[in-house]
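dumping this here so i dont lose it again. seq + smiles for pyridoxal-5'-phosphate
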Amino acid sequence: MTAVYNFNAGPSALPKEVLQRAQAELTNFNGTGMSIMELSHRSKDYEAVHQNAIDLLKELYNIPDQYKVLFLQGGASLQFSMIPLQFLKEGTIGNYILTGSWSEKALKEAKLIGKTAIAASTKENNYQSIPTSNDFQFNKNDAYVHLTSNNTIFGTQWQDFPTINHAPLIADMSSDILSRPVDVEKFGLIYAGAQKNLGPSGVTVAIIKEDLLEVNVDQVPTVLRYKTHADSNSLYHTPPTFAIYMLNQVLTWVKEQGGVNAIQKRNEEKAKLIYDAIDESNGFYRGHAEKDARSLMNITFNLPTEDDNQKFLAKAKELGFVGLNGHRSVGGCRASTYNAVPLEACVALREYMDSYRASH
Ligand SMILES: Cc1ncc(COP(=O)(O)O)c(C=O)c1O
């Protein structure tokens, strides 16, 4: 088996050490004689893993005491509905900042539930940029303001988050959670599907400020209430135990790497290799994102023609690069350089980009 360089957009690379540890204890977790998947979610062995994952995330992400960490199911996509179901009441507005397809999808779900508005959008430039604070249009009856911190498909990322005082700020951080330090206190709610930076698919993490748990949820189905999960420490029903076990392993690995600051530094180094290959190519590679909006997680670019894109991707595949094709809705090329993607993979990609350009 030859080595592969995994640049998948999600599910995506997991740290090799994490996979090896999971393999080593797959059939006998903690001396139980069983795999973690076979244990009761009410058992002490499982509960210790569950609690450790919550505590580690709080520690690594510097989450203040007045926030709860929840483990939910239904992916980030279910959050698109849970948010308006919970917070979008008669006479209020769900206000969305549109920076790509995922924020559009979040808005679409909110429209099914109540009144919405678009606080700002960069759709007119095909989502190459992030709006600036001067562009925001707020309403005094905003129930919340929603943004997507990193735009997986277009390859843009918020560099600084706005401070919003009139309503809770809610962020979909599915594709950049834990890639850099974040001031959690700016947000009422942060959510993320795990399958990029946190672990395998199957668990969705929510970080919610306690005062948002006090809203009236009488009309919301029990399992779709944040309060249900907060009150039961995310053990209201059977949680995705294996996914949470893997999340705990990934968080342990992040800590071993030196925490989120060290991870950010490495992510910057990795992304720079590929952005440099683009910037030093005399226009052969064209980045989609404007420079001041570039994502550290998803690097999107095109070659001069669609035919060139396809040839570049075909050759890359032969060389062991996986997942470099752009999302089907925008095409081109995309390298996803999430936390677990090793520096060597980015060095190899840079070398391939340079040599491909030199020979074309
Ligand atoms: C930013 C963002 N939000 C939401 C989603 C959807 O997540 P899920 O598949 O967990 O519903 C994705 C998936 O790629 C994403 O990148």
